[in-house]
Amino acid sequence: MIKCHLSRIMGERKLKIVDVARETGINRGTVTRLYHETASRIELEAVEALCRYFDCQVGDLFEYQVDNGTDSN
After folding, report:
1. What sequence ranges are listed for the domain HTH cro/C1-type (predicted)?
2. Residue 22 maps to which CATH number?
3. Does residue 37 form part of some domain?
4. Among the listed residues 48, 57, 1, 3, the one whose alpha carbon sits nearest the alpha carbon of residue 26
5. Long-range pairs of 29-34 with CB within 8 A, sequence gap ≥ 24
6. What is the pTM of this model?
7. 71 in a domain, yes or no?
8. Which residue segment(s) compose the domain that 43 sits in?
9. DSSP annotation string for 24-71
10. 2 contacts 64 by C-beta, under 8 angstroms
11. Do the Cβ atoms of 26 and 20 come closer than 8 Å?
12. Is the pLDDT of residue 71 over 70?
C-alpha cells in the first residue's frame, strides 16, 4: 500500500487543507483525500505541485509499505 505523509508535513508546518489547495492550485477535495489517505489516484501534476510547494521529493510525500493483511490477487 502507498502511505501518504501529507498530513504529517502539513502538521509540522501548521498548514490547513485550504491553505495548501489555494497555494498549489490543487482541488481542495484532492488535498483532503490525500490528507486523510483516502485517495485512490492522483494526477502527476498534483504531485509535482506538492513537491514544488513543500520543496521536497516524491519519496518525502509517498512511501510504499508492504500490506501483510490483505491479498490483492
Report:
1. 6-61
2. 1.10.260.40
3. yes
4. 48
5. 31/6, 34/4, 34/6
6. 0.87
7. no
8. 2-64
9. H---HHHHHHHHTT--S---HHHHHHHHHHHT--HHHHEEE---TT--
10. yes
11. yes
12. no
Contacts of 4 (CB under 8 A, 6+ apart): 34, 35, 37, 39, 61, 62
Q: Which residue has the higher pLDDT, 70 or 24?
A: 24
What are the cell numbers at 59?
519519496
Element (H, E) at 4: strand 2-4
Q: Under a CB-based contact definition with an 8 Å cutoff, are residues 35 and 42 in contact?
A: no
Distance (Å, whole) CA 73 – CA 58? 27
Number of domains in the chain: 1
Local confidence band at 67 (pLDDT 50, 70, 90 cut-offs)? confident
Does some domain include residue 73? no
| Residue 61 · residue 4 · CB < 8 Å | yes
Distance CA 3, CA 37 (A): 7
Cβ partners under 8 Å of residue 46, min gap 6 = 24, 26, 30
